[in-house]
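Researcher: Let's continue the batch. This sequence belongs to YdcF family protein, and it's 197 residues. Same format as the previous ones, please.
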Amino acid sequence: MAAATYTQAAPAAQADTAATCSVPSAAGQLVDALRAIATVSPQTLPDIHGRSTAIVILGYGLQDDGSMRPELVERLRAGYLQALLAPMSPIIVTGGNPHNGMTEARAMADWLLRQCMPADRIHIEDTANSTVQNAEHSAPIMRQLGVRDAVVVTSVDHLDRAVDTFHEAGVEVIGTVTPNATAQPGVWQFGPDHPLA
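Model: Same format as before. Here are the C-alpha cells for YdcF family protein:
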C-alpha cells in the first residue's frame, strides 16, 4: 500500500492551509512553549531512532460534518509534541471512516499542517476503518519509508489494544504517547488559537 505525503495528496489544500500556518507572534510565547516542552519527564516520551522511527497517530471518529472530536485533537496534540522532539521522524496519520467527504487521516494531516508541521513529514493512510486496519495499513507504509519501528499515539484507554494490533502486524512498537502523558498547557500558547483547530 503506497501512502501519499501531504504534498502529493492535496497540493491545493496544502496551499490553502499553509496560508493559515501560524508561528509565534511574540518571542515570549515561544519561550513559554519551550519551557513547557522542557518540563516533560524523560520517562514520558519514548526514545526514537530518527528517520527509522515513525510517529503513528491513530484516528478517532469524526463528527457528521467532518470536523474532529476533542479526543482526536488531543491525540494530535500528543503526536505533535512527540514530532517536535523527534524532528527527523516521519509522521503517519491513519484513519478512514469519511464523514462529509473528510477522512480522519485527512483531517489530522490538515491540522498538523496548520501547526506548521512540514508537509513532507506527513504520510496519509486514509483507508483504515478499525484499529486492526490502522496497524495493517500503516505497516507497508513504514516499510516503504524504510522505517523499522514506531511510536504509537492514541488515547490511554485504547493503548493496549493498539500496541497489540501493531505487534500482530509485524511492527515493533518502541514507545507510546497518550494525551494524558504529555499534557503541557504551555505548549498550546503558540500556533493557531482554536480549541479544536
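Researcher: Any comment?
Model: The beta strands are 4-5, 53-58, 91-94, 122-125, 149-153, 172-177.
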